[in-house]
Design brief:
The protein is an all-alpha fold. Helices cover about 60% and strands about 0% of the residues. It folds into 2 domains: about 5-140, Ferritin, core subunit, four-helix bundle (Ferritin), CATH 1.20.1260.10; about 175-315, Ferritin, core subunit, four-helix bundle (Ferritin, Up-down Bundle), CATH 1.20.1260.
């Protein structure tokens, strides 16, 4: 007989349920508004897996005598609403969400101790990785996704000589060109925030709550600011930022999703942005880059904090499982 679930396993399973029910509701609207046959098949395949996983999690909660979370339900989506984004947005969105899902599952599997829970997260990871691969290759084939910039192939091993390699903070110093690691992190930051910018443009367009609409505009402006900052950094090293022509909102003003769902997704992507910036700060050796990324991280943190307050105010934040005793 399996031992009782630990606190980390309960908490992570609860998070997985929130994440998967939210994603299922979003995909239901995509599926109800077929715009492209190939995109539809891609989304349908992942949706089928996601529904099965939600059912597994529900059964697991019941088996362990844990109350099943509310998560996101049928009333959080309006499948009959007109498409809010163009035909390729759902594939672009799915690809970015697989990045988030892979990161979450990798963290959760490392925090699991019971074999059945570990195996469950491995299956989550397999499906997410396969979907990421399929969506990436599809978008590249369609010419929708731009590959990161090319650099000359290294011909010999070099070692850093002197502290000048880390120059960049002093305005009187000549900044060295970005290395491959720094370029990749900045590029990924642009790619993710372009999707976030487009997503929040749509959310702002359909939100009926004045305070929430204002919050989405703030997030849209923040994403634009991050894109501009990172693009300028690439251009100063003679590297072309990605150009995106797809994923834009339509003219629809009918919301496909509840304000609760849109706020939760925005908060989730903000948390992902904080993690990405922390990674960039850790692996960037040119001293001006961690400074820029730290300032961006503070703005994202403040934005996410305001979003949390807004969710609590409107009764949209479900409380995670907790210990019975409050700290003294």
């Amino acid at each position: 007989m399996d031992k009782q679930l630990s606190s980390s396993e309960i908490g992570n399973l609860w998070m997985a349920y929130q994440h998967k029910t939210m994603l299922a509701r979003i995909l239901e609207h995509f599926l109800a508004n077929k715009q492209n046959e190939d995109v539809y098949n891609l989304v349908q395949s992942y949706y089928n897996h996601e529904v099965n996983f939600i059912n597994e999690l529900t059964d697991l909660f019941k088996k362990e005598n844990i109350v099943v979370p509310v998560g996101f339900v049928e009333s959080d989506v309006n499948p009959s609403a007109k498409p809010l984004y163009d035909q390729y947005f759902s594939a672009l969105f799915l690809r970015v969400m697989m990045k988030v899902t892979i990161g979450l599952n990798a963290l959760h599997v490392s925090m699991s101790y019971r074999k059945d829970i570990t195996e469950l997260y491995k299956r989550f990871l397999d499906v997410a990785q396969n979907t990421y691969d399929e969506s990436t290759q599809f978008l590249l084939k369609e010419g929708v996704l731009t590959r990161p910039p090319m650099i000359p192939m290294p011909e010999k091993v070099e070692f850093v000589k002197g502290e000048g390699y880390m120059a960049g903070f002093n305005i009187f110093s000549n900044k060295r060109p970005l290395n491959a690691i720094e370029t990749s992190l900045i590029y990924q930051g642009i790619e993710t925030n372009v999707l976030g910018f487009q997503l929040l443009r749509g959310f702002e367009q359909v939100s009926k709550d004045k305070e929430v609409k204002k919050y989405f505009k703030k997030g849209k402006d923040l994403a634009k600011q991050i894109i501009d900052t990172f693009s300028d950094t690439l251009l100063k090293s003679d590297i072309q930022p990605p150009k995106v022509a797809w994923g834009n909102p339509t003219l629809s003003t009918e919301s496909p999703y509840s304000e609760k769902l849109m706020m939760y997704l925005t908060n989730l992507l903000s948390s992902f942005g904080l993690t990405s910036n922390a990674l960039g700060t850790s692996f960037s050796l040119r001293s001006d880059l961690p400074t820029k990324m730290s300032l961006i991280a503070k703005d994202i943190f403040d934005f996410a904090k305001d979003g949390g307050k807004l969710m609590v105010k409107n009764g949209w934040m479900e409380e995670p499982p907790q210990s019975l005793k409050s700290p003294e």
